[in-house]
Amino acid sequence: QVQLVESGGGLVQAGGSLRLSCAASGMPFSLTRMGWYRQAPGKQRDLVARIISGGETYYADFVEGRFTISRDNAKSTVYLQMNSLKPEDTGVYSCNAAYFGTNYWGKGTLVTVSS
């Protein structure tokens, strides 16, 4: 059974930093494409960043060099380091795993950036 458990969200002031973690189990993690999505209140869920098994990364335009996605295959964990946070970064951040055509989701962790 695939499980994704996020942690690291919280309340931070604008300009601050947070590091999100997503611990995965029940899949061959090193072969799985991992991603972070976010959903702001009243808005659709958007891709923030993804990392494939080989380590290649992709970022949404709004990241603007402020976030870094990384993975530790030995720990089956993907991270999202977020710096220079803005109030518009507020939302629920969810971990995604794409494996053999199936998407799996964590429950999400709330990030609130105050101005």
What's the helix and strand layout?
Layout: E1 3-7, E2 10-13, E3 18-25, E4 33-39, E5 45-51, E6 57-59, E7 67-72, E8 77-82, E9 91-99, E10 102-105, E11 109-114
Top keywords for this entry?
115 residues, mainly beta, seven-stranded mixed beta sheet, four-stranded antiparallel beta sheet, 0% helix
Structure description:
With 115 residues, the chain is mainly beta. Strands 2, 4, 5, 6, 9, 10 and 11 form a seven-stranded mixed beta sheet that branches. The chain has a four-stranded antiparallel beta sheet with strand order 1-3-8-7, with no helix packed on it. Strand 4 and strand 5 form a beta hairpin. The protein is globular and about 40 Å long. 30% of the residues are buried.
The residue-averaged pLDDT reads 96
User: Can you count the helices?
Assistant: 0
How far apart the termini lie comes to 40 Å
- Specify the oligomeric state: single chain
- Order of helical and strand elements: EEEEEEEEEEE
Fraction of residues in helix = under 10%
Q: pLDDT below 50 for ≥5 consecutive residues: which ranges?
A: none
| Most strands sheet | 7 strands, mixed
Portion in strands: over 45%
Overall geometry comes to globular
Number of strands: 11
Radius of gyration: 13 Å
